[in-house]
Amino acid sequence: MGLIYFVRKKKFRTSGGMKSLYYAIQRKLQVKGGKTERDLAKILSQGSGRSEGDVLSILTDLPKAIEEILKGGESVTISGLGSFQTAITSNGFEAPEDVLPSEVRLSKIYFKPDRRFFYRVSTMNFFRYPLSKYFPKNQLRAETLAKEKKEEKEVFPEMGNESAD
């Protein structure tokens, strides 16, 4: 399918006063966590010649291996996917000698996607969740309502039984 999004109004101050603009925000139509390592193992085992159990075992061990490498002070790069890296921080001190190892802490672990991977994912399709489901109908154009009623049955077939009136 693709990524389904909502539209939300955001207000902000400008030199000319308050201004409102509408933005796309992600809507999650999935159970918490989306796909699991079991789902991924099933996908990867198909056509790879490896059993689902073997792939699941590797996926289960992968976080532990990445953890050990990151704890060793190195990043982890998976070709075609991206890199896992750490960032550190500390409180500020007046003298450099006061920045001791006990004062340094991990601020975040982040994932930097491979450029080609990012590009491939960025070409996904986007679908706007019908505005008539969460905006008052008197705030929408008549042509928008008519277009949504038609598209609703095509893009969101599970909603075909709900009334958009």
From TrEMBL:
Keyword flag S-adenosyl-L-methionine: no
Record's keyword terms, sorted: DNA-binding
InterPro entries: HU-HIG, IHF-like_DNA-bd_dom_sf
UniProt-recorded Gene Ontology molecular function terms: DNA binding
Domain HU: from-to ranges: 1-126
Top-level taxon of the source organism: Bacteria
Protein name per Swiss-Prot or TrEMBL: DNA-binding protein
